[in-house]
Fold these 2 entries.
Entry 1:
Amino acid sequence: ILAKIEELFSELDKGIENLKTARQQLEIYRQAVLKQAFEGKLTANWREKNKDKLETTSELLERIKQERETSYQQQLEEWKSTLKAWEEKGKEGKKPAKPRKPEEVTRHSEEKLSQLVFLPHGWAWLQIKDLCDVVRGGSPRPACDPRYYDGDIPFLKVADITRTSNAHLETYSYTLKKAGLQKTRKVAANTLLLSNSGATLGVPKICLIEATFNDGIAAFLGLNKNHLLYHYYFWTSKTKKLRAINQGAAQPNLNTDLIQEVFFPLCSSDEMIEVTNEIEKKLSVCDQICEEIERNLQKAEALRQSILKRAFSGRLVA
């Protein structure tokens, strides 16, 4: 009986080892897909067939300038409305902050660009600060104070972002009252968020609800809603690199300055959508294989128990 158990367990362990190796290889493949996506390699054939949809560097910069200006005007109108309501209520609480006018898009030197990966025609390197505003949330203090917490306003923490591997977020565990709004930051639905502190920093999420968030999260304001998934996958490709940044602090942390300085590969609006489609197509297959591997690992554990049960009920070496 013992010899038979060891023989079967040895075969089972080899199978489990192969499954775990395959799982590791899938993670390497996933990172390779993202790397190729943001070097323009996944859409090389698409560019060849859609030359009329490509933009020159000047056109890319002009589009970004217009998008930022449109976003700024929207924020300005919202601020005027909020300011008026604040004044009508007797200027109670903190005065709404006026949005900052976007700066001119930076044209980087050839020397600086030469240190980055070469991008194909129709692509350009820009820094995040050229595309949008990066802001950090806030947490009402003291924590759990009934004056601020347990209301009806969603309040996101890092755990809400890192709980699942989904691209989108529409659930929350904590809430604030109106009094807590003065000590945090609120964003509209369809805003890209990024965890920026702790062991799970560098995790992006597209928030589908209007919500507030704590200081362990950064938000990207003014991004084109049609391109949020492109941005989401870009930051997913950067998670490991962000966690490797050593700022000399006991607690890993990303400040907004660091995030704003990150270089971002920009391409035409149509190609951004095509890149996203290619990524999702390839990662979807990857996810299916991963699920199959996890099912087989669970089956292997069940089989181990079954072998033992048969062994000690006299049925293994009948």
Entry 2:
Amino acid sequence: DVREPDEWELGRAPQASHLPLSTLQPAQLPTGRPIIAMCRTGNRSGKAAAQLAAAGHDATNIVGGMQAWHAAGFPVVVDGGAPGVVK
């Protein structure tokens, strides 16, 4: 999840890791496994996926981001697993 901390704290996909686009450093991430990038709408995560791919990672953007994730009925959670929101 490449959203900013305030967005992340409201709700995210279960098991997501938080790596804001503003601080993303693709060269510091381990290789050898796919990375799925997500943001609110898919714009920032598209940029992140491009940066990751350019650094040699197997990266995919979730088109539509958390808004599409939530609209499709997938869970959105906060710390502790309680339901979260997407704004």
